Amino acid sequence: MDGRKRDNIYPGLPVAIVQKQDQRSGRLTKGVVQDILTSSANHPRGIKVRLETGEVGRVREIKPPCPILKRRG
């Protein structure tokens, strides 16, 4: 899925984001989406989200859901 399209992002989705201070290095932070902060349908650098840990950044990768959690649901 594409992290530049808002329709692909939803709360509870595991993602990897790049935070503002990490843009030069490209360091990614993994987490789970809490809120979607970008209001437009698309963004060329990625949809901005807040993770459950409070970190804010743009989605670079969408991770597949954990198979263990899928079995429980």
UniProtKB/TrEMBL annotation:
InterPro entries: DUF2196. It comes from the Bacteria. This is YwbE family protein. Pfam families: DUF2196. PANTHER family: YWBE PROTEIN. The lineage of its organism: Bacteria, Candidatus Kerfeldiibacteriota.
